[in-house]
C-alpha cells in the first residue's frame, strides 16, 4: 500500500547519497527522502570501524571539492574523522532531516501508467517517487566466504564490516582470512596484542610505503583562513593520483607498463628492507602486475610478519572445524577468534544492490548479466526512466570515489535542469547513446592494464563476472566532468 509520495527517493546515505541530496537541493528539489538500512549515515565509513581503519588516499583528495575540510589531523586520516566529515557535511546542507534510518529497501518497479517509481521497503510499505537514485556505493554488501564448515566454528567470528569495539585480542589465538586493503590496515593492530595471529592469504597484495604526516595547528589554521592553500595541496595530490591512474592503468599500452614495473620494484624494495626471510618475501610477492588489484600503502603490514606471534598461511583452506582451520596441506591451526577480512561482494550482491524493474518489466540485474554490464556516463540505462545509479558499470574513475561523485553531480545538474526547463516528467537514455558509450569504453579499455597486463591471478573486483573490467571508467577526471557538463541532451529522451 502506498503511504507517501515524493519527488525523489535516494537509496543509501553514504557520501554518494549525501552528494545526490545536495545536488537536488541546489536544483530546488526538496521533496525527497533518503532510505538508509543502517541507523546512521556515512555508508562504509559508518559500518567500518575496525582497528587501524584509515583512508588509503590522501584526505586532501578524499573529500568533496566544494566542501574542503581544514581540520584533517593527517594526510591519511583515520576512519572516525571521515565519519565526522560526513556528519558535518550532512548538517551543513540540512540532509539528515531527509533520511529514514533502519529502512531496508527490497526493490523498486517503474509504474508505466503513472510514470512513477514504486519503492518497496521491508515491512510492507511502498513509497512512490518521480525519480529514483541508487546511491548504495560499490562497497556495501559484505562478502562471507563459502568455506566448508564455517558455520560449525565454536569460537568468535567477526567480520570487519561488523567489528565489535569491545573485542580485545590480547592473549587470543586469532586467524585472519584475507589480505586486501582492510587486512593490511587491521593485521598490524591485531599483531600487537594477539598471542598468536595466523594470516590466511589467497592472493598477495602490492604494498608500498606510506608517506604520511600530521597537519599541525598552524597548518589547520592556514587551511581555514586561506582555503586556497588547501586547494593547492589538493591539486597536488589529485594530480599525482591522476598521473598514476593514467600512466599505470588507462594508458598501460602506451607506456609499456613502465610505471607498473617501477611501482612493483618499490614494493619489492620495501619487502626486502623489512623482511629478511627470503622465502617469506617470495610468498608475499604478487605474481600479477601492479594495479590489477587495488594496491595499498602501509608502513606496518610487512613488519607484522617479523613478529614471532604472526604466521603466514598460503596453502589454502580445506575446511573450518569447531576449534580451528584445516589448510589444504593438512595442517590444523586451533584458534579462538576467526576474523573475516574478506571485503565486499561487489558484483553478485551490489550490481544492483536492490531489485530494479524498469520499463516493460526489464530486470536490471538480469539484463546486465544476460548482455553486458553497461551504463551510459556511468549512471543511466535504457528502459529505466527517471533512474540514475551512482554505483554502476563504468562509473568509478580510479583511486578516489569523490572524483566519481563530483562528475555524477555535474551530470545530475545538467540533466535535471533541462528536464525542469522543458516542464518534462520523464527522461530515459536512448539505446543508441548507450551503445555508442559502451563501444567507446570498450575501445579505451583495450589499451588499459586490465586488457594488456598480467591480471589473470589478481582476483580483482575491477573485473565483472564475465571477466570484463567494467568497474573502471577509462577517462580522466577532467574528461568525465567535461562530458557530464556537455553531453548531448539528445542522448536522453525527455518527455512530458
Distance between the first and last residues' Cα = 26 Å
Supply the CATH architecture of the largest domain.
Answer: 3-Layer(bba) Sandwich
Assembly state: single chain
Look up the CATH topology of the largest domain. FAD/NAD(P)-binding domain
Level-1 CATH class name of the largest domain: Alpha Beta
Percentage of residues in helical conformation: 25-40%
Q: What would you call the shape?
A: globular
Number of strands: 20
Q: Quick check: average pLDDT?
A: 94
What's the helix count? 15
- Backbone CA Rg: 23 Å
The domain tally reads 2
Q: Biggest sheet, in brief? A: 8 strands, mixed
Which class best fits the helix and strand makeup?
A: alpha/beta
The CATH superfamily of the largest domain is FAD/NAD(P)-binding domain
Range of strand content: 15-25%
Low-confidence stretches: none
Summarize the structure.
This protein has helices spanning 15-26, 44-47, 79-92, 181-193, 217-225, 227-250, 252-255, 258-274, 278-283, 301-304, 364-370, 401-422, 431-445, 449-452, 477-486; strands at 2-11, 32-35, 99-100, 105-111, 116-121, 126-134, 156-159, 173-177, 196-200, 207-208, 296-297, 310-313, 317-321, 324-327, 332-334, 337-340, 355-357, 387-389, 426-429, 492-495. By secondary structure, it is α/β, with parallel strands linked by helices. Helix 1 (15-26) runs parallel beside helix 12, helix 5 packs across helix 6 (227-250) and helix 12 packs parallel to helix 15.
Helix-strand layout with pairing:
Blueprint: E1 2-11, H1 15-26, E2 32-35, H2 44-47, H3 79-92, E3 99-100, E4 105-111, E5 116-121, E6 126-134, E7 156-159, E8 173-177, H4 181-193, E9 196-200, E10 207-208, H5 217-225, H6 227-250, H7 252-255, H8 258-274, H9 278-283, E11 296-297, H10 301-304, E12 310-313, E13 317-321, E14 324-327, E15 332-334, E16 337-340, E17 355-357, H11 364-370, E18 387-389, H12 401-422, E19 426-429, H13 431-445, H14 449-452, H15 477-486, E20 492-495
Amino acid at each position: 500500500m502506498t503511504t507517501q509520495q515524493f519527488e525523489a527517493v535516494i537509496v543509501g546515505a553514504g557520501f554518494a547519497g549525501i552528494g545526490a541530496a545536495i545536488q537536488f537541493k541546489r536544483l530546488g528539489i526538496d521533496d525527497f527522502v533518503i532510505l538508509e538500512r543502517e541507523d546512521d549515515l556515512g555508508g562504509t565509513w559508518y559500518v567500518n570501524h575496525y582497528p587501524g581503519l584509515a583512508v588509503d588516499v590522501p584526505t586532501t583528495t578524499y573529500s568533496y571539492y566544494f566542501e574542503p575540510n581544514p581540520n584533517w589531523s593527517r594526510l591519511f586520516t583515520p576512519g572516525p574523522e571521515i565519519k565526522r566529515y560526513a556528519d558535518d557535511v550532512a548538517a551543513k546542507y540540512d540532509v539528515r532531516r531527509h533520511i529514514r534510518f533502519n529502512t531496508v529497501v527490497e526493490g523498486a518497479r517503474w509504474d508505466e501508467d503513472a510514470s512513477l517509481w514504486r519503492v518497496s521497503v521491508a515491512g510492507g510499505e511502498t513509497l512512490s517517487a518521480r525519480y529514483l537514485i541508487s546511491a548504495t556505493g560499490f562497497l556495501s554488501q559484505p562478502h562471507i566466504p563459502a568455506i566448508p564448515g564455517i558455520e560449525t566454528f565454536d569460537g568468535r567470528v567477526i567480520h570487519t564490516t561488523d567489528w565489535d569495539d569491545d573485542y580485545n585480542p590480547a592473549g587470543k589465538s586469532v586467524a585472519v582470512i584475507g589480505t586486501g586493503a582492510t587486512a593490511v590496515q587491521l593485521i598490524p593492530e591485531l599483531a600487537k596484542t594477539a598471542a598468536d595471529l595466523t594470516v590466511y592469504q589467497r592472493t598477495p597484495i602490492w604494498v608500498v610505503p606510506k608517506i604520511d604526516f600530521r597537519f599541525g595547528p598552524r597548518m589547520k589554521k592556514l587551511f581555514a583562513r586561506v582555503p586556497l592553500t588547501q586547494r593547492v595541496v589538493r591539486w597536488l595530490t589529485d594530480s599525482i593520483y591522476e598521473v598514476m591512474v593514467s600512466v599505470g592503468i588507462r594508458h598501460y599500452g602506451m607506456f609499456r607498463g613502465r610505471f607498473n614495473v617501477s611501482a612493483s620494484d618499490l614494493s619489492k624494495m620495501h619487502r626486502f628492507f623489512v623482511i629478511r626471510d627470503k622465502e617469506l618475501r617470495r610468498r608475499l610477492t604478487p605474481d600479477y602486475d601492479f594495479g590489477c588489484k587495488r594496491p595499498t600503502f602501509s608502513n606496518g603490514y610487512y613488519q607484522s610478519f617479523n613478529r614471532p606471534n604472526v604466521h603466514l598461511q598460503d596453502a589454502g583452506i580445506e575446511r573450518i572445524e569447531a576449534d580451528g582451520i584445516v589448510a589444504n596441506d593438512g595442517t590444523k591451526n586451533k584458534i579462538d577468534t576467526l576474523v573475516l577480512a574478506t571485503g565486499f561482494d561487489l558484483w553478485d550482491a551490489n550490481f544492483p544492490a536492490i531489485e530494479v524493474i524498469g520499463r516493460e518489466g526489464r530486470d536490471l540485474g538480469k539484463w546486465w548479466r544476460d548482455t553486458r554490464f553497461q551504463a551510459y556516463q556511468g549512471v543511466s540505462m535504457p528502459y529505466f526512466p527517471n533512474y540514475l545509479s551512482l554505483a554502476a558499470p563504468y562509473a568509478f574513475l580510479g583511486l578516489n570515489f569523490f572524483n566519481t561523485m563530483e562528475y555524477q553531480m555535474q551530470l545530475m545538474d545538467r540533466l535535471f535542469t533541462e528536464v525542469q526547463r522543458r516542464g518534462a516528467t520523464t527522461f530515459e537514455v536512448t539505446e543508441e547513446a548507450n551503445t555508442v558509450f559502451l563501444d567507446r569504453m570498450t575501445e579505451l579499455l583495450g589499451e588499459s592494464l586490465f586488457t594488456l597486463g598480467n591480471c589473470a591471478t589478481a582476483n580483482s573486483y575491477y573485473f565483472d563476472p564475465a571477466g570484463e573490467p567494467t568497474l573502471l571508467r577509462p577517462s580522466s577526471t577532467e574528461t568525465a566532468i567535461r562530458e557530464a557538463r556537455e553531453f548531448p541532451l539528445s542522448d536522453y529522451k525527455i518527455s512530458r
